[in-house]
Design a protein that fits this description.
Largest sheet: 7 strands, mixed
Helix content: 25-40%
Strand content: 15-25%
Shape: globular
Radius of gyration: 17 Å
Order of helices and strands: HEEHEEHEHEHEH
Oligomer: single chain
Strand order of the largest sheet: 1-3-4-2-5-6-7
Length: 222
């Protein structure tokens, strides 16, 4: 007999594979504008230009859902997306929501912007009970940088579960991918909130998307 957890995981899997059937809900510049608690949330974080928007678009199968830009630091809000076909009423909630978090590490960002990012992200991580996991994206060409380590410390402080995801693996040679995975795993050995697996992806080549979908489903329904 299929239990409630299995049904829920199947619903999440179906939503993630419902290519193109996703919609933008709202952008949240500060905590008072957060939508009411509803479906479980999965968030994506990373340095500016790490490929976050491209990965969300590839994952959902809807180009342009998350805005991509060549201008670092463009996303300065928590942007919420949900699969279509649900009313939003408590008895008809979508199985999950995806949250695109503001990019960090933009060298030219004024100190006030960095402080706003830190405050918004920390308060969201610490106080959002429906947030199940943050997927922290790392550019496979560059590996974990100091601002990534700073973000990881913030997540550890908030006791927020997070998992590292390599992006743009099509931009490096195939033999370098397992080496980069090992190097990335080494960076999280002492991070209490880090999930001990790294996912390698390429939005351009659609690599690793099924692994990411599976990780999302497990994060929502362990």
């Amino acid at each position: 007999m299929t239990n409630e957890t299995e049904l829920s995981r199947q619903a999440v899997d179906a939503a993630l594979k419902a290519h193109g059937n996703w919609a933008f809900v709202k952008g949240v510049p500060s905590m008072e504008f957060l939508p009411p608690l509803g479906p479980p949330e999965i968030a994506f974080a990373g340095r500016s230009n790490v490929g976050k928007s491209s990965l969300i678009n590839a994952l959902t199968g809807k180009n342009g859902l998350a805005r991509t830009s060549n201008t670092p630091g463009r996303t300065q809000e928590l942007n919420f997306f949900v699969p279509e076909g649900f009313s939003g009423a408590m008895d008809n909630l979508p199985p999950l929501a995806i949250v695109d978090m503001p990019g960090y590490g933009y060298a030219k960002a004024p100190i006030e912007m960095v402080e706003r990012w830190t405050e918004l992200v920390f308060e969201y991580m610490r106080g959002r009970v429906t947030l199940k996991r943050i997927f922290l994206l790392i550019d496979a060409r560059h590996g974990v940088k100091q601002n990534d380590l700073d973000a990881m410390k913030l997540m550890d402080k908030a006791a927020m579960s997070y998992q590292l995801v390599l992006t743009k693996t099509d931009k490096i040679k195939a033999p370098a991918i397992p080496r980069m995975i090992d190097e990335t795993l080494d960076k999280i050995k002492k991070s209490p909130a880090a999930y001990p697996e790294v996912i390698a992806t390429s939005s351009e080549k659609s690599r690793g998307l099924d692994d990411l979908r599976e990780a999302i489903a497990k994060a929502i329904n362990p």
